[in-house]
Amino acid sequence: RRVFSVAGCSMKSISLTYFNIQGAAEKVRLAFVLGGIPFSDVRVPFDQWPSMKPTTPYGQLPTMSIDGAEPIAQSDAMLRYAGQLATDNGVPLYPPDQMLDIEEARGLVSDLEREWRVPVGIGFQDPAIFGHSSNIKGTAEHKAIIQAVREKFLAEELPKYMGFFSKRLSGKPYLCGDSPTIADCALVPVLNRLCSGGVEFVPVDCFSAHPEVVAYLARFMELPAIQTWYKDSAP
Ligand SMILES: N[C@@H](CCC(=O)N[C@@H](CS)C(=O)NCC(=O)O)C(=O)O
């Protein structure tokens, strides 16, 4: 449990609870970090999850509690809330006059996340979810299926979405203009996961045909607040 604070910012006491991974919460963490909004970054060990699950609103994490109130769920609600607080704090992550453009970009990121769900999930979830026998888990047959599904994603969906993002990024440094917004906070963790080398059959240079995306990711990751965040936060 770590507490981040910046002098003169929101007086609310915000606690964000998730697993010790980036997953669905990293976009919210990044919005708080960029916005200079202090929050408690609570990370639940997986072995504590079964007993905690029934205490959450929908049996899922992340949850967020404000000033000790009942926790709320849904990471996109939290992302927009963090964006609003940041905007009030002088960091325009979600300014009302850009709402439509930011939501369009966030929707596009959601589409990419949806397309990525099967290629990533097929590697660790029950094969039965994807229409295969549960018995194939861990076998050479399973591995071949994982490879085929991921390579299809790399050949078809990834270039399609990277093309869309490159087009949005032509002539502007971030998805919605000169400075980052909640849409960038949503996209960056997805891109970092894709090129992490941590997903089998997805190479670290998977964006090499899309230099605008490579430059954009580097630009975001070089923001001072983000540099500090990844120096201090793990993983
Ligand atoms: N729509 C929800 C999805 C949350 C979600 O899928 N949480 C997963 C982890 S990413 C979870 O809690 N899994 C554990 C479980 O369902 O038992 C959100 O964006 O917050």
From TrEMBL:
It comes from the Eukaryota. Residues 111-235 form the GST C-terminal domain. CDD domains: GST_C_family, GST_N_Sigma_like. One of its GO terms (molecular function) is glutathione transferase activity. InterPro entries: Glutathione-S-Trfase_C-like, Glutathione-S-Trfase_C_sf, Glutathione_S-Trfase, Glutathione_S-Trfase_N, GST_C, GST_superfamily, Thioredoxin-like_sf. PANTHER family: GLUTATHIONE S-TRANSFERASE. This is Glutathione transferase.
